Amino acid sequence: MKRWLLLIGLLCTLCSCGNESALEPSKNKNEALDLTHISTKDQNTSQQQANQAKAALSNYKEITAIKAVNTSKQLIIAVQVEQNQRLKLAKIRKQLSKEMKEMFPDLKVELTTDKKIAIELEKLEEKLKSGSMSKKSMEKRVKKIVDLSKEQT
To answer: Nearest to residue 81, comparing CAs of 128, 121, 32?
Structure first.
């Protein structure tokens, strides 16, 4: 009995003591990724930075969906991670947030893994794609989503 416990403990220790990063960019694009590029007719609501962020994050095989919207000063990103990677969620969020802040130093970047925020961003993306939203109302909506992401449940 002691031998089995020792063996199981040793195996668990060896498996958990990896020197790898929480996320590894894959060489090929993630085909199963739910990715929507937003193009708007209005230059005031251009989503170029959001599309760049989506393209950069799509290289990670652990990510299953990316929603992002930007204003002239702010970029908000919601990612969904594979179920088996949820144990490393804090580490993943920290690493991706750092990468996005380095990629967009002139914008205030908010990255979240909250499903509620992803749903709100998806609604906002749809309104932007349809062209039924002004710059002012978009900025107001993004501010509301950022406030929502910061509130504690």
So the answer is: 32
